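In the current project phase, we have settled on a layout for protein records. One protein thus recorded is set out beneath this paragraph:
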Amino acid sequence: MFKKEPHIKALSNLKNSERKKLLQSCKEQTGASDYNFSTSIVKQTNYKGQHSDGTVYTDQNNVPIWFKEKHGELLFPTVYSCWTAPNLLPIVLTHDFVIEERLFNGANLMLAGTLPPFDERCVPAKVCGIASRTDPKVILAIGVVQLNLPSYSSVIGQPGIAVKVMHYFTDGLCQAFKIDIEPAVLSSEPVEEEEEEEGKEKLTESPKRETFHTEISIEDVAQVLDELSVEDVDHFFTRALYYTFTHDTGLNIPINASNFISNHILPNLPPVDQSQVNMKKTSWKKTAKFLKHFEKVGFLQLKGKGDDLVIVGVNKNKDELKNFVPYKTSGQTASKKNSNKDSSPGMMYSEKLYKPINLGKDFIQCSDLPPKNLYTVTELKDSVNQYITAKKLVDSKNKKMVLLDDLLFDMFYRKKKTQETPRCVSRAQIMDPFIANNFTEFYQLFKDEDTPLFKNPIRGPLPRVKIVTEMKIGRKVVTRVSHFETFKLDPEDLAANLRKLCSGSTTIGETVTSPKVAEVQVQGAHGPLIIDYLNKQGIPTKWIDFESKLKNKKKKKA
Protein backbone atom coordinates (compact mmCIF):
# COMPACT_ATOMS: atom_id res chain seq x y z
CA MET A 1 0.00 0.00 0.00
CA PHE A 2 2.84 2.40 0.87
CA LYS A 3 5.39 0.87 -1.48
CA LYS A 4 6.09 4.41 -2.65
CA GLU A 5 6.19 7.52 -0.49
CA PRO A 6 2.72 9.16 -0.32
CA HIS A 7 2.13 12.90 -0.47
CA ILE A 8 1.37 14.19 3.04
CA LYS A 9 -0.55 17.39 3.74
CA ALA A 10 -0.10 19.67 6.76
CA LEU A 11 -0.93 18.23 10.19
CA SER A 12 -3.63 19.59 12.49
CA ASN A 13 -4.53 18.68 16.08
CA LEU A 14 -7.62 16.56 16.70
CA LYS A 15 -10.27 17.98 18.98
CA ASN A 16 -10.57 16.17 22.31
CA SER A 17 -14.01 14.81 21.37
CA GLU A 18 -12.68 13.47 18.05
CA ARG A 19 -9.69 11.96 19.82
CA LYS A 20 -11.98 10.07 22.22
CA LYS A 21 -14.15 8.90 19.33
CA LEU A 22 -11.09 7.63 17.44
CA LEU A 23 -9.80 5.81 20.53
CA GLN A 24 -13.17 4.12 21.04
CA SER A 25 -13.18 2.96 17.41
CA CYS A 26 -9.69 1.52 17.84
CA LYS A 27 -10.76 -0.38 20.97
CA GLU A 28 -13.89 -1.78 19.34
CA GLN A 29 -12.04 -2.97 16.25
CA THR A 30 -9.12 -4.61 18.06
CA GLY A 31 -11.04 -5.84 21.11
CA ALA A 32 -8.36 -4.33 23.34
CA SER A 33 -10.47 -2.54 25.94
CA ASP A 34 -7.42 -1.42 27.94
CA TYR A 35 -5.68 0.18 24.94
CA ASN A 36 -4.86 3.89 25.07
CA PHE A 37 -2.91 6.24 22.86
CA SER A 38 0.71 6.71 23.89
CA THR A 39 0.30 10.47 23.52
CA SER A 40 -2.07 13.08 24.91
CA ILE A 41 -2.04 15.00 21.62
CA VAL A 42 -3.19 13.30 18.42
CA LYS A 43 -2.75 15.00 15.05
CA GLN A 44 -4.29 14.12 11.72
CA THR A 45 -3.58 14.73 8.06
CA ASN A 46 -4.62 13.39 4.68
CA TYR A 47 -2.34 11.39 2.43
CA LYS A 48 -2.45 10.68 -1.29
CA GLY A 49 -0.67 7.52 -2.37
CA GLN A 50 -0.08 5.70 -5.62
CA HIS A 51 -3.15 3.48 -5.24
CA SER A 52 -5.16 4.92 -2.34
CA ASP A 53 -6.01 8.04 -0.35
CA GLY A 54 -6.81 8.32 3.32
CA THR A 55 -6.09 9.78 6.73
CA VAL A 56 -3.04 9.39 8.96
CA TYR A 57 -3.06 10.01 12.72
CA THR A 58 0.20 10.89 14.48
CA ASP A 59 1.41 11.55 18.00
CA GLN A 60 2.73 14.89 19.23
CA ASN A 61 6.16 14.10 17.71
CA ASN A 62 4.61 13.51 14.26
CA VAL A 63 5.15 9.74 14.45
CA PRO A 64 2.27 7.99 12.62
CA ILE A 65 0.25 5.80 14.98
CA TRP A 66 -2.90 4.88 12.99
CA PHE A 67 -4.16 5.29 9.44
CA LYS A 68 -7.37 4.69 7.51
CA GLU A 69 -8.24 4.44 3.82
CA LYS A 70 -10.65 7.04 2.44
CA HIS A 71 -13.45 4.61 1.57
CA GLY A 72 -12.54 1.86 4.02
CA GLU A 73 -13.92 1.04 7.45
CA LEU A 74 -10.83 -0.55 8.98
CA LEU A 75 -8.36 1.39 11.11
CA PHE A 76 -4.76 0.20 10.91
CA PRO A 77 -2.21 0.73 13.69
CA THR A 78 1.32 1.41 12.51
CA VAL A 79 4.26 -0.72 13.58
CA TYR A 80 5.23 2.10 15.97
CA SER A 81 1.89 1.75 17.81
CA CYS A 82 2.33 -2.01 17.97
CA TRP A 83 5.79 -1.65 19.53
CA THR A 84 4.27 0.33 22.41
CA ALA A 85 1.26 -2.03 22.65
CA PRO A 86 2.53 -5.51 21.66
CA ASN A 87 -0.78 -7.21 22.60
CA LEU A 88 -2.88 -4.97 20.36
CA LEU A 89 -3.17 -7.33 17.36
CA PRO A 90 -3.08 -11.08 16.72
CA ILE A 91 0.27 -12.00 15.21
CA VAL A 92 1.16 -14.23 12.27
CA LEU A 93 4.72 -15.54 12.36
CA THR A 94 7.06 -16.01 9.42
CA HIS A 95 10.79 -16.29 8.69
CA ASP A 96 13.35 -13.47 8.68
CA PHE A 97 14.05 -14.05 5.00
CA VAL A 98 10.38 -13.67 4.07
CA ILE A 99 10.17 -10.35 5.94
CA GLU A 100 13.44 -8.91 4.63
CA GLU A 101 13.28 -10.12 1.03
CA ARG A 102 9.54 -10.35 0.37
CA LEU A 103 7.42 -8.13 2.63
CA PHE A 104 9.92 -5.25 2.74
CA ASN A 105 9.83 -5.27 -1.07
CA GLY A 106 6.06 -4.79 -1.18
CA ALA A 107 4.83 -8.40 -1.44
CA ASN A 108 1.93 -9.96 0.46
CA LEU A 109 2.48 -12.81 2.92
CA MET A 110 1.69 -16.12 1.24
CA LEU A 111 0.18 -18.98 3.20
CA ALA A 112 3.21 -21.17 2.48
CA GLY A 113 5.42 -18.56 4.17
CA THR A 114 3.62 -18.63 7.53
CA LEU A 115 4.27 -20.70 10.64
CA PRO A 116 1.30 -22.52 12.22
CA PRO A 117 -0.37 -22.88 14.65
CA PHE A 118 -2.28 -19.62 14.32
CA ASP A 119 -4.02 -17.29 16.73
CA GLU A 120 -7.77 -18.05 16.80
CA ARG A 121 -8.45 -14.38 15.97
CA CYS A 122 -6.75 -14.67 12.55
CA VAL A 123 -9.92 -14.94 10.49
CA PRO A 124 -10.73 -13.22 7.16
CA ALA A 125 -10.99 -9.38 7.26
CA LYS A 126 -9.21 -9.23 10.64
CA VAL A 127 -6.33 -6.78 11.03
CA CYS A 128 -3.19 -8.59 12.20
CA GLY A 129 0.50 -8.05 12.74
CA ILE A 130 3.35 -9.97 11.13
CA ALA A 131 6.49 -10.80 13.11
CA SER A 132 9.61 -12.89 12.76
CA ARG A 133 9.84 -16.28 14.46
CA THR A 134 13.12 -15.11 16.01
CA ASP A 135 11.41 -12.13 17.69
CA PRO A 136 7.70 -12.98 17.86
CA LYS A 137 6.63 -9.93 19.89
CA VAL A 138 8.03 -7.27 17.55
CA ILE A 139 5.56 -6.57 14.74
CA LEU A 140 7.25 -5.50 11.50
CA ALA A 141 4.24 -5.40 9.16
CA ILE A 142 0.48 -4.82 9.36
CA GLY A 143 -2.12 -6.43 7.13
CA VAL A 144 -5.56 -7.93 6.67
CA VAL A 145 -6.11 -11.69 7.03
CA GLN A 146 -7.39 -13.26 3.80
CA LEU A 147 -7.92 -16.89 4.87
CA ASN A 148 -9.30 -18.74 7.86
CA LEU A 149 -5.81 -19.39 9.22
CA PRO A 150 -6.74 -21.39 12.38
CA SER A 151 -8.16 -24.11 10.11
CA TYR A 152 -4.66 -24.86 8.75
CA SER A 153 -2.47 -27.21 10.75
CA SER A 154 0.10 -27.47 7.95
CA VAL A 155 0.94 -24.92 5.25
CA ILE A 156 3.47 -26.88 3.18
CA GLY A 157 2.45 -26.65 -0.46
CA GLN A 158 -0.72 -24.70 0.35
CA PRO A 159 -1.55 -21.91 -2.16
CA GLY A 160 -3.08 -18.52 -1.45
CA ILE A 161 -2.43 -15.19 0.24
CA ALA A 162 -2.52 -15.42 4.03
CA VAL A 163 -2.20 -11.70 4.79
CA LYS A 164 -2.62 -8.71 2.49
CA VAL A 165 0.10 -6.34 3.69
CA MET A 166 -1.04 -2.73 4.19
CA HIS A 167 2.02 -1.26 5.92
CA TYR A 168 5.50 -2.39 6.90
CA PHE A 169 8.55 -1.03 8.68
CA THR A 170 10.58 1.34 6.45
CA ASP A 171 7.79 1.65 3.84
CA GLY A 172 6.72 4.87 2.12
CA LEU A 173 4.65 6.01 5.11
CA CYS A 174 7.71 5.83 7.39
CA GLN A 175 9.79 7.64 4.79
CA ALA A 176 7.19 10.40 4.28
CA PHE A 177 7.34 11.29 7.99
CA LYS A 178 11.12 10.78 8.07
CA ILE A 179 10.90 8.43 11.04
CA ASP A 180 14.22 7.14 12.37
CA ILE A 181 13.03 4.76 15.10
CA GLU A 182 14.32 1.20 15.33
CA PRO A 183 12.15 -1.70 16.57
CA ALA A 184 11.81 -1.78 20.33
CA VAL A 185 13.78 -4.47 22.13
CA LEU A 186 11.20 -6.60 23.90
CA SER A 187 11.82 -9.49 26.25
CA SER A 188 10.77 -12.02 23.67
CA GLU A 189 12.24 -15.46 23.22
CA PRO A 190 12.69 -16.82 19.69
CA VAL A 191 10.43 -19.63 18.63
CA GLU A 192 12.39 -22.78 19.32
CA GLU A 193 12.70 -25.61 16.85
CA GLU A 194 11.15 -28.79 18.20
CA GLU A 195 12.63 -32.26 18.00
CA GLU A 196 10.86 -34.47 15.47
CA GLU A 197 9.74 -37.04 18.01
CA GLU A 198 8.12 -34.39 20.21
CA GLY A 199 5.78 -33.19 17.46
CA LYS A 200 4.09 -29.82 17.51
CA GLU A 201 2.91 -28.08 20.64
CA LYS A 202 -0.60 -26.71 20.74
CA LEU A 203 -1.28 -23.02 20.94
CA THR A 204 -1.03 -21.88 24.55
CA GLU A 205 -4.31 -20.37 25.66
CA SER A 206 -4.11 -16.85 27.01
CA PRO A 207 -6.72 -14.10 27.09
CA LYS A 208 -4.24 -11.47 25.87
CA ARG A 209 -1.34 -13.06 24.10
CA GLU A 210 -0.41 -16.44 22.69
CA THR A 211 3.08 -17.90 22.58
CA PHE A 212 3.82 -19.86 19.43
CA HIS A 213 5.94 -22.98 19.13
CA THR A 214 6.34 -24.93 15.94
CA GLU A 215 8.47 -27.61 14.37
CA ILE A 216 10.53 -26.29 11.47
CA SER A 217 12.01 -28.93 9.21
CA ILE A 218 14.41 -28.46 6.34
CA GLU A 219 11.62 -29.14 3.86
CA ASP A 220 9.46 -26.47 5.53
CA VAL A 221 12.16 -23.85 5.14
CA ALA A 222 12.82 -24.76 1.53
CA GLN A 223 9.14 -24.67 0.60
CA VAL A 224 8.10 -21.53 2.44
CA LEU A 225 11.11 -19.48 1.48
CA ASP A 226 10.93 -20.55 -2.15
CA GLU A 227 14.67 -20.04 -2.34
CA LEU A 228 16.81 -22.99 -1.21
CA SER A 229 15.98 -26.67 -1.11
CA VAL A 230 17.96 -29.23 0.87
CA GLU A 231 19.63 -30.18 -2.41
CA ASP A 232 20.69 -26.55 -2.89
CA VAL A 233 22.32 -26.42 0.55
CA ASP A 234 24.00 -29.78 -0.08
CA HIS A 235 25.28 -28.39 -3.38
CA PHE A 236 26.81 -25.35 -1.65
CA PHE A 237 28.63 -27.53 0.88
CA THR A 238 29.81 -29.90 -1.84
CA ARG A 239 31.16 -26.96 -3.86
CA ALA A 240 32.89 -25.63 -0.74
CA LEU A 241 34.59 -29.02 -0.28
CA TYR A 242 35.71 -29.04 -3.93
CA TYR A 243 37.01 -25.47 -3.59
CA THR A 244 38.91 -26.39 -0.41
CA PHE A 245 40.66 -29.33 -2.10
CA THR A 246 41.54 -27.42 -5.29
CA HIS A 247 42.16 -23.76 -4.36
CA ASP A 248 42.54 -23.46 -0.57
CA THR A 249 46.31 -23.18 -0.09
CA GLY A 250 45.92 -22.98 3.68
CA LEU A 251 44.72 -26.58 4.04
CA ASN A 252 47.20 -28.74 5.92
CA ILE A 253 46.66 -32.47 6.50
CA PRO A 254 46.06 -33.96 9.06
CA ILE A 255 43.34 -31.72 10.45
CA ASN A 256 40.51 -32.43 12.88
CA ALA A 257 36.90 -32.22 11.72
CA SER A 258 35.99 -29.08 13.69
CA ASN A 259 38.87 -27.00 12.32
CA PHE A 260 38.27 -28.32 8.81
CA ILE A 261 34.66 -27.10 8.81
CA SER A 262 35.16 -23.77 10.61
CA ASN A 263 38.43 -22.71 8.92
CA HIS A 264 37.92 -24.11 5.42
CA ILE A 265 34.42 -25.30 4.47
CA LEU A 266 32.44 -22.36 5.91
CA PRO A 267 34.78 -19.61 4.58
CA ASN A 268 34.77 -21.35 1.19
CA LEU A 269 30.99 -21.29 0.84
CA PRO A 270 29.63 -18.86 -1.75
CA PRO A 271 28.65 -15.46 -0.27
CA VAL A 272 25.24 -16.58 0.99
CA ASP A 273 23.32 -15.96 4.20
CA GLN A 274 24.82 -18.58 6.51
CA SER A 275 21.72 -18.51 8.70
CA GLN A 276 20.05 -20.23 5.72
CA VAL A 277 23.06 -22.23 4.52
CA ASN A 278 24.64 -24.17 7.37
CA MET A 279 25.37 -27.76 8.28
CA LYS A 280 22.03 -28.23 10.06
CA LYS A 281 20.18 -27.34 6.84
CA THR A 282 21.97 -30.06 4.82
CA SER A 283 20.76 -33.63 4.42
CA TRP A 284 23.73 -34.76 6.54
CA LYS A 285 22.79 -32.57 9.55
CA LYS A 286 26.12 -33.28 11.30
CA THR A 287 29.78 -32.78 10.42
CA ALA A 288 30.61 -36.45 11.00
CA LYS A 289 27.99 -37.67 8.52
CA PHE A 290 29.12 -35.06 5.99
CA LEU A 291 32.75 -36.21 6.17
CA LYS A 292 31.89 -39.93 6.19
CA HIS A 293 29.81 -39.45 3.04
CA PHE A 294 32.76 -37.98 1.17
CA GLU A 295 35.06 -40.67 2.55
CA LYS A 296 32.66 -43.25 1.15
CA VAL A 297 32.76 -41.70 -2.35
CA GLY A 298 36.56 -41.49 -2.26
CA PHE A 299 37.39 -37.82 -1.65
CA LEU A 300 39.12 -38.14 1.72
CA GLN A 301 40.39 -40.52 4.39
CA LEU A 302 39.33 -40.36 8.03
CA LYS A 303 40.57 -41.69 11.33
CA GLY A 304 38.70 -41.78 14.61
CA LYS A 305 35.33 -42.88 15.95
CA GLY A 306 31.96 -41.22 16.34
CA ASP A 307 32.19 -37.45 16.04
CA ASP A 308 35.90 -37.35 16.96
CA LEU A 309 37.30 -37.54 13.43
CA VAL A 310 40.58 -36.47 11.84
CA ILE A 311 41.13 -36.01 8.10
CA VAL A 312 44.38 -37.77 7.24
CA GLY A 313 44.22 -37.90 3.45
CA VAL A 314 42.72 -36.15 0.41
CA ASN A 315 42.22 -37.57 -3.10
CA LYS A 316 42.73 -34.69 -5.55
CA ASN A 317 42.54 -36.93 -8.62
CA LYS A 318 38.75 -37.20 -8.65
CA ASP A 319 37.14 -36.16 -11.94
CA GLU A 320 34.90 -33.66 -10.14
CA LEU A 321 37.99 -31.82 -8.89
CA LYS A 322 39.74 -31.82 -12.27
CA ASN A 323 36.83 -30.01 -13.95
CA PHE A 324 36.03 -27.73 -11.02
CA VAL A 325 35.58 -24.03 -11.83
CA PRO A 326 36.34 -21.73 -8.86
CA TYR A 327 33.95 -19.03 -7.66
CA LYS A 328 33.94 -16.07 -5.28
CA THR A 329 33.79 -17.29 -1.68
CA SER A 330 32.29 -15.65 1.37
CA GLY A 331 35.79 -15.34 2.83
CA GLN A 332 36.95 -13.35 -0.20
CA THR A 333 33.88 -11.14 -0.01
CA ALA A 334 34.54 -10.35 3.64
CA SER A 335 38.19 -9.54 3.00
CA LYS A 336 37.31 -7.14 0.15
CA LYS A 337 34.32 -5.51 1.80
CA ASN A 338 36.22 -2.37 2.64
CA SER A 339 37.54 -1.78 -0.90
CA ASN A 340 35.18 1.18 -1.41
CA LYS A 341 36.15 3.00 1.78
CA ASP A 342 37.38 6.56 1.66
CA SER A 343 41.01 6.83 2.68
CA SER A 344 40.20 9.50 5.28
CA PRO A 345 39.24 8.19 8.73
CA GLY A 346 35.69 8.92 9.82
CA MET A 347 34.38 9.25 6.26
CA MET A 348 31.36 7.34 5.01
CA TYR A 349 31.80 4.98 2.09
CA SER A 350 29.31 3.46 -0.33
CA GLU A 351 28.69 0.10 -1.93
CA LYS A 352 26.84 -0.39 -5.22
CA LEU A 353 24.56 -3.41 -5.43
CA TYR A 354 22.57 -4.79 -8.33
CA LYS A 355 19.23 -6.60 -8.44
CA PRO A 356 18.62 -8.92 -11.42
CA ILE A 357 15.63 -8.22 -13.67
CA ASN A 358 14.39 -9.87 -16.86
CA LEU A 359 17.27 -11.84 -18.43
CA GLY A 360 19.43 -11.07 -15.41
CA LYS A 361 17.39 -13.62 -13.45
CA ASP A 362 17.97 -16.23 -16.17
CA PHE A 363 21.71 -15.60 -16.01
CA ILE A 364 21.78 -16.03 -12.21
CA GLN A 365 20.13 -19.43 -12.59
CA CYS A 366 22.69 -20.48 -15.22
CA SER A 367 25.67 -19.26 -13.19
CA ASP A 368 27.32 -20.35 -9.96
CA LEU A 369 26.03 -17.29 -8.11
CA PRO A 370 23.95 -18.11 -5.02
CA PRO A 371 20.27 -17.10 -5.12
CA LYS A 372 19.90 -13.77 -3.33
CA ASN A 373 18.37 -10.35 -3.89
CA LEU A 374 21.42 -8.15 -4.56
CA TYR A 375 24.91 -8.68 -5.97
CA THR A 376 28.09 -6.61 -6.06
CA VAL A 377 29.71 -5.67 -9.37
CA THR A 378 32.69 -7.86 -8.47
CA GLU A 379 30.43 -10.88 -8.02
CA LEU A 380 28.78 -10.23 -11.37
CA LYS A 381 32.09 -9.69 -13.16
CA ASP A 382 33.59 -12.88 -11.73
CA SER A 383 30.45 -14.80 -12.62
CA VAL A 384 30.50 -13.55 -16.23
CA ASN A 385 34.15 -14.58 -16.56
CA GLN A 386 33.38 -18.02 -15.12
CA TYR A 387 30.40 -18.36 -17.46
CA ILE A 388 32.55 -17.45 -20.48
CA THR A 389 35.19 -19.98 -19.43
CA ALA A 390 32.69 -22.76 -18.70
CA LYS A 391 30.86 -22.24 -22.02
CA LYS A 392 34.19 -21.94 -23.91
CA LEU A 393 33.19 -18.63 -25.49
CA VAL A 394 36.70 -17.12 -25.73
CA ASP A 395 37.83 -16.54 -29.33
CA SER A 396 40.66 -18.99 -30.04
CA LYS A 397 42.40 -16.49 -32.35
CA ASN A 398 42.10 -13.45 -30.08
CA LYS A 399 41.79 -14.07 -26.34
CA LYS A 400 40.47 -10.53 -25.78
CA MET A 401 37.36 -11.29 -27.85
CA VAL A 402 34.31 -13.24 -26.70
CA LEU A 403 31.74 -15.03 -28.86
CA LEU A 404 28.35 -14.29 -27.30
CA ASP A 405 26.02 -17.24 -26.89
CA ASP A 406 22.25 -16.71 -27.18
CA LEU A 407 21.80 -15.63 -23.55
CA LEU A 408 24.69 -13.15 -23.48
CA PHE A 409 23.73 -11.90 -26.96
CA ASP A 410 20.19 -11.00 -25.79
CA MET A 411 21.56 -9.46 -22.58
CA PHE A 412 24.17 -7.41 -24.44
CA TYR A 413 21.82 -6.12 -27.16
CA ARG A 414 18.59 -5.09 -25.46
CA LYS A 415 17.30 -3.18 -28.51
CA LYS A 416 16.29 -4.68 -31.85
CA LYS A 417 18.82 -7.06 -33.30
CA THR A 418 19.51 -7.87 -36.94
CA GLN A 419 21.47 -10.55 -38.73
CA GLU A 420 24.33 -8.08 -39.09
CA THR A 421 24.58 -7.51 -35.32
CA PRO A 422 28.06 -8.75 -34.32
CA ARG A 423 28.29 -11.69 -31.95
CA CYS A 424 32.00 -11.34 -31.30
CA VAL A 425 32.76 -8.46 -28.91
CA SER A 426 35.64 -7.36 -26.72
CA ARG A 427 35.60 -8.80 -23.21
CA ALA A 428 36.17 -5.27 -21.84
CA GLN A 429 32.94 -4.07 -23.47
CA ILE A 430 30.64 -6.70 -21.95
CA MET A 431 30.08 -5.56 -18.37
CA ASP A 432 28.59 -2.08 -18.88
CA PRO A 433 25.64 -3.12 -21.11
CA PHE A 434 25.37 -6.43 -19.23
CA ILE A 435 24.62 -4.57 -15.98
CA ALA A 436 22.75 -1.59 -17.45
CA ASN A 437 20.30 -3.76 -19.44
CA ASN A 438 19.63 -6.51 -16.93
CA PHE A 439 20.11 -5.19 -13.39
CA THR A 440 18.66 -2.43 -11.21
CA GLU A 441 21.15 -0.37 -9.23
CA PHE A 442 20.97 0.02 -5.44
CA TYR A 443 23.34 1.61 -2.95
CA GLN A 444 24.18 1.24 0.73
CA LEU A 445 26.14 3.73 2.84
CA PHE A 446 28.44 2.69 5.65
CA LYS A 447 29.70 4.61 8.65
CA ASP A 448 32.76 3.71 10.70
CA GLU A 449 33.37 0.03 11.40
CA ASP A 450 31.13 -1.18 8.57
CA THR A 451 27.91 0.09 10.17
CA PRO A 452 25.23 0.39 7.44
CA LEU A 453 23.36 3.69 7.37
CA PHE A 454 20.13 2.10 6.11
CA LYS A 455 18.37 -1.06 7.17
CA ASN A 456 17.97 -2.01 3.51
CA PRO A 457 19.86 -0.78 0.41
CA ILE A 458 18.23 2.13 -1.43
CA ARG A 459 17.20 1.85 -5.06
CA GLY A 460 18.89 4.12 -7.59
CA PRO A 461 22.30 5.80 -7.82
CA LEU A 462 23.81 7.53 -4.79
CA PRO A 463 22.50 11.14 -4.67
CA ARG A 464 24.99 13.97 -4.26
CA VAL A 465 24.74 16.92 -1.88
CA LYS A 466 24.14 20.06 -3.93
CA ILE A 467 25.51 23.46 -2.85
CA VAL A 468 24.68 26.54 -4.92
CA THR A 469 25.82 30.10 -4.23
CA GLU A 470 23.87 32.74 -6.13
CA MET A 471 22.66 36.32 -6.04
CA LYS A 472 18.93 36.79 -5.53
CA ILE A 473 16.79 39.77 -6.45
CA GLY A 474 17.97 42.78 -4.49
CA ARG A 475 21.63 41.78 -4.80
CA LYS A 476 21.37 39.46 -1.82
CA VAL A 477 23.90 36.60 -1.89
CA VAL A 478 22.76 33.24 -0.48
CA THR A 479 24.06 29.66 -0.41
CA ARG A 480 21.55 26.82 -0.80
CA VAL A 481 22.20 23.24 0.41
CA SER A 482 19.98 20.31 -0.65
CA HIS A 483 19.93 16.48 -0.99
CA PHE A 484 21.61 16.09 2.41
CA GLU A 485 18.87 14.04 4.11
CA THR A 486 20.14 10.87 2.43
CA PHE A 487 23.18 11.13 4.71
CA LYS A 488 21.01 11.35 7.87
CA LEU A 489 21.39 15.11 8.32
CA ASP A 490 18.31 16.76 9.84
CA PRO A 491 17.25 20.06 8.17
CA GLU A 492 16.69 21.85 11.48
CA ASP A 493 20.03 20.70 12.91
CA LEU A 494 21.83 21.65 9.71
CA ALA A 495 20.20 25.09 9.66
CA ALA A 496 21.13 25.73 13.30
CA ASN A 497 24.75 24.66 12.76
CA LEU A 498 25.16 26.71 9.58
CA ARG A 499 23.66 29.73 11.30
CA LYS A 500 26.46 29.58 13.88
CA LEU A 501 29.18 28.53 11.45
CA CYS A 502 28.44 31.14 8.78
CA SER A 503 27.21 33.90 11.12
CA GLY A 504 24.21 34.41 8.87
CA SER A 505 20.47 33.86 8.95
CA THR A 506 19.11 30.54 7.68
CA THR A 507 15.77 29.35 6.31
CA ILE A 508 14.39 25.87 5.63
CA GLY A 509 12.34 25.20 2.53
CA GLU A 510 12.01 22.86 -0.46
CA THR A 511 13.79 22.71 -3.79
CA VAL A 512 11.93 24.18 -6.75
CA THR A 513 12.78 21.30 -9.07
CA SER A 514 11.20 17.84 -8.84
CA PRO A 515 11.50 15.69 -6.83
CA LYS A 516 11.13 18.22 -4.06
CA VAL A 517 13.51 17.71 -1.14
CA ALA A 518 14.44 19.75 1.92
CA GLU A 519 16.70 22.73 1.31
CA VAL A 520 18.59 24.92 3.79
CA GLN A 521 19.49 28.45 2.72
CA VAL A 522 22.10 30.55 4.51
CA GLN A 523 22.88 34.21 3.88
CA GLY A 524 26.26 34.85 2.25
CA ALA A 525 28.74 32.99 0.05
CA HIS A 526 29.86 30.05 2.18
CA GLY A 527 30.40 27.12 -0.24
CA PRO A 528 33.92 26.04 0.89
CA LEU A 529 32.98 26.51 4.56
CA ILE A 530 29.90 24.27 4.17
CA ILE A 531 31.91 21.64 2.29
CA ASP A 532 34.39 21.54 5.18
CA TYR A 533 31.47 21.15 7.63
CA LEU A 534 30.00 18.27 5.59
CA ASN A 535 33.40 16.57 5.51
CA LYS A 536 33.44 16.65 9.31
CA GLN A 537 30.02 14.96 9.26
CA GLY A 538 31.55 12.07 7.30
CA ILE A 539 30.46 13.12 3.79
CA PRO A 540 33.46 13.04 1.42
CA THR A 541 33.98 15.87 -1.05
CA LYS A 542 33.50 13.51 -4.02
CA TRP A 543 29.80 13.25 -3.06
CA ILE A 544 29.31 17.03 -3.07
CA ASP A 545 28.49 19.24 -6.08
CA PHE A 546 29.31 22.91 -5.57
CA GLU A 547 28.32 25.63 -8.04
CA SER A 548 28.88 29.36 -7.70
CA LYS A 549 26.67 31.49 -9.94
CA LEU A 550 28.28 34.73 -8.84
CA LYS A 551 29.88 36.69 -11.66
CA ASN A 552 33.50 37.66 -11.17
CA LYS A 553 33.98 41.38 -10.80
CA LYS A 554 35.68 42.91 -13.81
CA LYS A 555 38.80 44.92 -13.09
CA LYS A 556 38.48 48.59 -13.98
CA LYS A 557 40.82 49.83 -16.68
CA ALA A 558 43.40 52.34 -15.47
Summary: Residues 185-226, 335-343 have pLDDT under 50 and may be disordered.
